Structures are given as structure tokens and as C-alpha cells.
Amino acid sequence: MTTKEIAKHVIDTLPGNATFDDIIHALYVGAKFRHGEHEILENKGISHGKAVKRLKKWVK
User: Fold this and answer.
1) Domain range holding 22?
2) What is the b/e burial string over 2-37, where b = at least 16 CB atoms within 10 angstroms of the residue's CB?
3) In degrees rounded to 5, what are phi and psi of residue 56?
4) 33-39 — which CB contacts under 8 Å span 24+ positions?
5) In this structure, how many other beta carbons lie within 10 angstroms of the beta carbon of residue 45?
6) CA–CA separation, 17 vs 7, rounded Å?
């Protein structure tokens, strides 16, 4: 799927009263998830254990 097709799909799934801010946010979040998935497929992600350790530093 091309970037343009993804953008159209994201916009089509939003409610009819979505604002430009809603559209931009949805596109941004989707892009970040796709980037993360791509990194995981290339074994660039971190293990669950490491993620838990990092999260413990942020959440107290």
C-alpha cells in the first residue's frame, strides 16, 4: 500500500466531523506505529524485559 493510499484509508476511517487536527494526529500515530513495526521486523526492537525495565524508570 502506498503512503497516499494509507492516508486515504486513515481519513476514510475517521468520523465525518473529524477536524484537520484529528486527521493530522491519526496520520502521525499511524506513521509511528508503522515505523515501529518495521523496526521490529528488522530485529531493531527491544525485548519485553528491557521495555519493562525502562518503563519502571518512567512510572513511579
Assistant:
1) 3-58
2) eeeeeeeeeeeeeeeeeeeeeeeebbeeeeeeeeee
3) -60, -30
4) 34/6
5) 14
6) 17
CA distance 10 to 5: 9
- Quick: pLDDT tens for 1-22: 899 999 999 999 999 999 999 9
C-alpha–C-alpha distance, residues 13 and 48, integer Å: 31
What does pTM read for this prediction? 0.70
Count of domains for the chain: 1
CB contact at 8 A, 18 and 2: no
H-only helix segments in 1-60: 3-13, 20-41, 48-58
- Residue 55, C-alpha cell as written in the block: 518503563
